[in-house]
Queue: 2 jobs
Job 1
Amino acid sequence: MNKRGFASDNNAGVHPRIMKALADANGGHCIAYGDDPYTAAAKEQFRKLFGECDVFFVFNGTGANVLSLQAMTQPFNAVICADTAHIHVDECGAPERFTGCKLLFNPTTDGKLRISDIKRHLHGIGFEHHAQPRVVSITQSTEMGTVYTVDEIREIAAFAYANGLLLHVDGARIANAVVYLGVSVKEMITDTGVDILSFGGAKNGMMYGEAVVILNPALAANFKYIRKQGMQLASKMRYISVQFDEYLKDGLWLENASHSNRMAQLLCQEVQALGVTVTQKVEANEVFAILPAQAIEALQREFFFYVWDESRCEVRWVCSWDTDEDDIERFAAILKKLLDN
Amino acid sequence: MNKRGFASDNNAGVHPRIMKALADANGGHCIAYGDDPYTAAAKEQFRKLFGECDVFFVFNGTGANVLSLQAMTQPFNAVICADTAHIHVDECGAPERFTGCKLLFNPTTDGKLRISDIKRHLHGIGFEHHAQPRVVSITQSTEMGTVYTVDEIREIAAFAYANGLLLHVDGARIANAVVYLGVSVKEMITDTGVDILSFGGAKNGMMYGEAVVILNPALAANFKYIRKQGMQLASKMRYISVQFDEYLKDGLWLENASHSNRMAQLLCQEVQALGVTVTQKVEANEVFAILPAQAIEALQREFFFYVWDESRCEVRWVCSWDTDEDDIERFAAILKKLLDN
Amino acid sequence: MNKRGFASDNNAGVHPRIMKALADANGGHCIAYGDDPYTAAAKEQFRKLFGECDVFFVFNGTGANVLSLQAMTQPFNAVICADTAHIHVDECGAPERFTGCKLLFNPTTDGKLRISDIKRHLHGIGFEHHAQPRVVSITQSTEMGTVYTVDEIREIAAFAYANGLLLHVDGARIANAVVYLGVSVKEMITDTGVDILSFGGAKNGMMYGEAVVILNPALAANFKYIRKQGMQLASKMRYISVQFDEYLKDGLWLENASHSNRMAQLLCQEVQALGVTVTQKVEANEVFAILPAQAIEALQREFFFYVWDESRCEVRWVCSWDTDEDDIERFAAILKKLLDN
Amino acid sequence: MNKRGFASDNNAGVHPRIMKALADANGGHCIAYGDDPYTAAAKEQFRKLFGECDVFFVFNGTGANVLSLQAMTQPFNAVICADTAHIHVDECGAPERFTGCKLLFNPTTDGKLRISDIKRHLHGIGFEHHAQPRVVSITQSTEMGTVYTVDEIREIAAFAYANGLLLHVDGARIANAVVYLGVSVKEMITDTGVDILSFGGAKNGMMYGEAVVILNPALAANFKYIRKQGMQLASKMRYISVQFDEYLKDGLWLENASHSNRMAQLLCQEVQALGVTVTQKVEANEVFAILPAQAIEALQREFFFYVWDESRCEVRWVCSWDTDEDDIERFAAILKKLLDN
């Protein structure tokens, strides 16, 4: 058995129910590329959650984000985002490469983009020498483990709309935000006016697969071509679809996120009890904290995790659907020993 | 249980041994993105088969082909291929879109590119008004179910090398060719001078995953960036890797291909016995044949398959790792009835 | 004084009236990038010729063609053209590179695309595995010196429209076609249903500059961004505009083309009188002919020109606005001597 | 005669000597696309100035910058620049669109990038999730009218080299910097270790045309294809080349820049004498200053110029090769009146 750590929810395995669903869907032939009953069923689950929408399954989060932006832009456009955004920091320039667009970004203290951050980038609209803003992209929950309230999203969507912009949400960890806010994903996404959502699965118990959920129907017409040309059309689609069906049909996605959020709360309490400074509000499944430099390395030998900001000894710990209380107790015990030295 | 047909080897399910390997790899945490023991083991399997090489796992065949070409070209280059090539016909223009290159192609009778087909496109070399040929891309086994001999590949590789070109092989069905020729993949690919091979898995019993096998080490240095920017880096990599490990480690890939080739032979014999004209040599797992127009539709109601060339009533039947003799007997029986009417 | 030849109308100089207009526009300051009175005047000339239209000046023909296609397509589209098209053969893959689109082309005998050539490429519409045809691009006059009739253009435009396609005309030598047919450019282009025309200037007496004439207003909205991002926005725009104003305002463009067409007719007669086979109808300013291999090189030492098809000793001669009868007499005399040997 | 203003050196006309050179080069035929004696002569002028180098003429500054970056990068690379850089602010996203690269930028106080600004962006090198820094791009003289010293450029080049980066200089106003520093362009560019320079002409008395000067020979091999595919190859090349020949051959470029620099000094003194705050060192041909809001509009009615930073009433005035002392006296007189009110 592989050891559990706090490096990333991508390091966790696949939930047993997902694994079983994969096995159950095996056997016999299905039409490839999505024209199969598993895909129809999974899409139906999305419509139950979001109301009317178009759904396209892709392989991974970078694919979901980049193709979403592609559907919303022309190459002379710009995308406005936080400087911590995955699309800006962690996708090796794929958004610029594939959409042709410029990314306009802002430093934020907590990973959350404000209206004022967006406004700064709008002065060049209509002036052909500047890339033309067309999309605001926010991450829910953010890369800093914080969560936009429903009102904040509604306000951003309204501001975007009023300024001729579209709103994209990178929801690689959307489940954690839904659970944290205790609202439905429809209230958070459909009803606030989001245009496209990248809906994550892999970080919360699936094996692979991400869904592009298009709430603005005008953006859906050509998406099948964008997906195929974007190298994100799975041949044996049923194996993505059946995962999403199982993930959504009776709340497994919320159960998993609920658990990882709770574990993050526990972890936060434990390390704060040890006098450790936690640098961000713990609203989803991540904890950011400052550790003494020498403790970091020693702790990493026991539990793998990443240093977030070397200059100030800030580290990131991520809880997963399979993190258990023992993991946290052991972690806290070891950390205590290191800090006591 | 889903019904089996002859539409595509992409329609078949996952081999039980692959399914079991996925389940066995589940549990606990693994470092994401490929720095895990499953990936190391799978790469080792590739090196056992090919000798020294660099291997990068990606999600699908289009991804493997496009990223391979990206690693071999600059945007002002051209890629020479057969007009039946998957990269030309079936990838929605992804190669042009992502590499920036022009595709130069030729009609062929059997899906196999000849030296003379390549030569036609070389006259503009050095002349800046023309896209500059840089890669020859062939498919093994071809989209027409035929197979290049080892000598043919060696000859193309030598010609390419002599003309400053690189050789890419789209091996979505490489296993079927290896089995047909009865040679090792090293003799067929490494020793002939192929530069990069797209090595397929999904069409022959895997769930998802394709490998880019780089034989020319000069092309490997930047591939990790190309893969990430190309949206083809899996987060939970272990689940691709463990499939490849199982697929390769004691010959499952050859077993499966051997079976589907044999089924195609059987199918060919059965339909020829009914007087049906088979239009291509059956060397891999595909049978191309001419049917009376009215028989096609009726037959499709029983067994799903595609019409290849409407204008001459040519159809394509593909056998899979899970096709069985009963499928073929039933198919032949129904076809017989339709032809007898 | 540089010697005149028959290699290309691009080799000719600038008409004295254009040169004088440039000098006259010099002095003092003008707002850069097109917001100046010269540009307004030149656009007005275009509207006089074409009726209501949007006009954008760019640097060169490749720029005009590529940006026109960019305005008409999304990256998953395809452009249908003749295999002799400049966009296919002579732009180093710029159309694919910048639009992301695939070019679908056909051999033709005379450079003219027929409805049947277009039809062949439409079978994949709606099927996401194939690049989606969106534009038909024809060249008027063609690269083979032939001219589409007004009826032929109208028929292609209607067919395109009926099939959801747009029509682009590469008019690098549009003036020669207008003169040949004896119709107005409005009858030929606006009234037939062309969507965008690349209107050439440099091959017919201008120094540099090409105009993108957008007849379909839906395609104009974003063109200013496409031009700027496409690196084709001139800072000192007045110097392109004043050329176009002079070129168009009282028929200089037709005079020049009329002359070069007439010279091509004369050249054709002279060489035919020597027994030389002319391989294409001479409708514009180009003559294609077969010469004995040994005569070609000797003739090239006296007059520079290009071999078109080495395999059959076909050469191309282009007449320019400044070709004179003496040039042709001298040329014919030398050719006669070479053929007599 | 068009009125002179202080909006941009792009608004000025063409120097009479350049105009005469254009007229002198007219007449007769020249091989198109650069294989002509004017181009050979102009390239020779560049080699006299820079020492051994490859030179490619293009149409405009955006073209020169984008193609230079294209020659230095692969799509997964990043380019580091100041946040005032023309490539970042004023090219409508063309660098991202055409190279595929991400731009990494920093705020600066004076348009000059420091080593510490570059360092901040290097932490992700070798980590595939991040775009890989490959080029540092600086502007000389900067968009803020300041000038890098030779030592500063040498230091940046050395730092770049030590970190596996290349150095690009956007020299749209390189002449103004050469004159200001009183060094040769060879000392400033070749000897410091610059890899590619965009050498401007249009802002300093030419009609159109920019030169890409490649000092690092490894970057030159494919540039002719990059230029053609990049839509920047002029057909009637002689008319760019002859301008450069005249511009360079006996110092016209330095004379013009010397004059515009001197006019900027004069303008600076005049407005400072009126109590106006000048916000940047005046080292080249630009003056940045703070004016009372109500004075700006009134002044713009007499002399066209741009507001640089609306939020603090900062304006930009640019002097040109044809600005004269009278212009400045009149300007200062009007400004005085406005300020006195």
Job 2
Amino acid sequence: MVQDIYDKIMMLAKRRGYIYPSFEIYGGIAGFYNYGPLGSQLKNNVEKLWRSFYLLRDNCIEIDTPTITIYEVLRASGHVDEFTDLTIDCKKCKRSYKVEDILEKGTTVEDAIKSGTLKCPSCGGILKNPYNVNLMFSTSIGVGERRKAFLRPETAQGIFTDFHLLYRYVREKLPFGVVQIGKGYRNEVSPRQGTMRLREFNMAEAEIFFDPENKEHPNFNKVKDKELYLFDNEKNMKLSLEKAVKDGIINNRALAYYMYLTQEFLLSAGIDSKKFRFRKHADDEMAHYATECWDAEIYSERFDWIECVGIADRSAYDLSAHIKSSGTDMYVLRKYEKPKIVEVKKLIPNMGKLGPLFKDKAGKIKEILEKMEVKDTKKISVVIDEKTIKIPDDCYEIVETNEKKIGDKFVPHVIEPSYGIDRIIYCILEHNYHEINKKGEEYRIFTFKPYIAPIKTGVFPLISDNKLIKVAKEIDKKLRDCSISTYYDESGTIGRRYARMDEIGTPFCITVDYDTLEDNMVTIRDRDTTKQKRVKITDTVSFIKEKIEISCC
Amino acid sequence: MVQDIYDKIMMLAKRRGYIYPSFEIYGGIAGFYNYGPLGSQLKNNVEKLWRSFYLLRDNCIEIDTPTITIYEVLRASGHVDEFTDLTIDCKKCKRSYKVEDILEKGTTVEDAIKSGTLKCPSCGGILKNPYNVNLMFSTSIGVGERRKAFLRPETAQGIFTDFHLLYRYVREKLPFGVVQIGKGYRNEVSPRQGTMRLREFNMAEAEIFFDPENKEHPNFNKVKDKELYLFDNEKNMKLSLEKAVKDGIINNRALAYYMYLTQEFLLSAGIDSKKFRFRKHADDEMAHYATECWDAEIYSERFDWIECVGIADRSAYDLSAHIKSSGTDMYVLRKYEKPKIVEVKKLIPNMGKLGPLFKDKAGKIKEILEKMEVKDTKKISVVIDEKTIKIPDDCYEIVETNEKKIGDKFVPHVIEPSYGIDRIIYCILEHNYHEINKKGEEYRIFTFKPYIAPIKTGVFPLISDNKLIKVAKEIDKKLRDCSISTYYDESGTIGRRYARMDEIGTPFCITVDYDTLEDNMVTIRDRDTTKQKRVKITDTVSFIKEKIEISCC
């Protein structure tokens, strides 16, 4: 059987310790993968690069919230109702499918079912009665009266529900961004695309909060002439940020800026620019919370164009939902240049009436009434514990007063770049994988960027001579003490050892030979040029450090 | 009400963005906390320090496996049966308790229940009928025929179930260590100790695999004279590693070495050595998998001595369990110096008999029989899918042959240092918190080590003059480009800005003043000495970098 690139990479990934199927000794289960010793370091390095873009370059703040999320949060966010897949079961062989996966292009679900053409890909049985399945893993907290909860479908909700605290942290200024890196979960009906569709995955999300009247970014002007790789569902275009916004292709400057940051990040991580594009979502493919969405798509020989980052304008959707459900004040004040005097109608609650009528709820009702803005004098009602309570006319008075108003309250808008770290890691593997023929043998190299490579340098004594071994081990220790990951190896020919390092993408190899004992210099070999250079032992740390740093300074 | 140090720290932690209660806008729930902008960086730094100890200094490898874990793994590991708490419900007020939490010291559960002295701490109702509750959060995977699963109670099982792959990765040499950093889960019955008892927590675990006949560590000799802080449940002792092992207080050198590594890590992270000790577990307090266990305990003014790291000798418990349940070969070969000729009895399966008798299972049975070592000729049976199948005599022949044997197979032993990151973080906050009185005002400082501090340096223009602001912002950007986290601040007096930085534990503050415009130098103020130093702008990056690095090089 001819192997495609995915098969080759996954075999190599398993053999050399990048990616293992999870629970393999118990038969495994689709949608779960482990990162092995090299994979976990690759992932750490990708996340470190991501943080350097979002925390350091863009000045976002990071938070870390639980993966277990209580029901109330995800009901408010819409996930309990909307985070679903249309699913269909085969009565014959008991398999379940996501309808979208087995529907022929161009047909609708209704047509396929009516005409009886929707058949089980496994046994050929006719499929009927599709139904919606919620994709969240559910669990419960505590014993006895347990509390319903889910594993989070996105890290974003942990940020939204802390908005008021985070806004205070940044000393009440917009725009500001908050990121979270961590696990997300999606109980896929039947994932069959290897590492591309995981049930437990690693995400990195940024939520940038804006004044909706001012979707600008302080750094936009610095990058406005840079070009974005765009795809309008028909053709590819290279457009400057400024032109894309001016022509209305991208809705606003802030969105364009985060698309650019995303593009820069992915290319820096080692994605091939010829296999990269932004594609705009059609109206009917957007998530329930989005008003505009661009996907950063990466081309894979196996999977074609795949979505690796979604950059969505979530508008005020989430914050409004949490304000409504929790009653928490998450508004932001847009101050006037000078205060205005405005006429307002206020409710003055009458506790003499409210008390006997509403008993223990009266205090809460009083509180809500006092905060209420009265638009007209129609019937007044309040919502407590999701129940609407009508308040009789005699329970309050309406008083007109003049008030000093210092600004307008509003709910901030959110722009969200949401990264699927696992898909990006697979694409980095695929785009950096090379096979060459070396002396009749197949030779494999991963050409990872030095700051992405899991191991930075091999350290070898030329041969297994104790004198060379001693020096090589000292150098190895020195590098590790300086936070440089190494691979010490004394077995096999030097050629074989270089090949081992090339195959896992190690950018440098340091060799200690007999000259070293005389001149205190080592040979450093570069993976990509295969050129060798003599460097003083005392300079090895700084030599390697300089080459593996994310930014030069 | 007088606040104790925990209340003070948690208030400060919330106000300044270290720790927030989770889901607070929906009323919160015990056992869940968020790390805010500073807390998440503190956590990242603690984990980075931990990796420098385990990955770089100790040469362990890291892996990353799912939090969702299928039933089969956790049944084999014993968690389905053993990971329980004795629990009791109050029939009157419906609250549930972990019996251990409400039992008076010195009384047994049986006595307390018989005598009717076990009462509900909430309503005073008499408590009866304790029962065991499993502490794992459960969930299920897929739709239709769902697969039972749990959220992992420890990261260790992800390592054990990959042992054969990891052993291959390290090219089949013992000892070697594998670490995992990530979430662990424990559905506590009713956690009431703030951040000390979490239902979702961050762990860092190392599993070090040894030949049980050789529980040594290559670095033991380098540190054998260092002293460990030990507590034998009666008195404190300071003992060298060598003496502790020689006197049989610590079972073996490898265990002693990892205790030392743990002590070094905790003290480097900023734990006060006077509030630190190792306490040995009594036989009846060990986890179901352990044969010897030491706790690294840290003293808290609120919580007294708390376990923050458990260092357990898990022996061959877990690997043996997974070998038995999964049938996977996870044995290791201890090679002889030269091969021996030994007499062995082998089973030769008779497929003519096995086939008709066992049908589709016959192939699997043949495979097992061929691998079986025959100790005597009593009845032979095999286990398939957990069912024991007796094999009739006529289905095989027993043949005696001479075989070349190159070594003995054995199951490696495991030493496990298991760190509770959240508890350590709380203790770092408590041990580094100082209140002083400054000009009649209460003044708070966190004296974090520079490599632990979330923000490395404040950057201030002396006053809000555009000329100073421009230079300060340039320096701020330069530092960030070089991966140094900063806090730019131009509001309030310099004293107020220093105070803000002291309160969050920022070790340095850089101020740009009018002299800077002349001499291109800035003032760098040290948090702990409050001394100021003039440094060239071009040297600021290297000045700060040198001071915040984990190791000097």
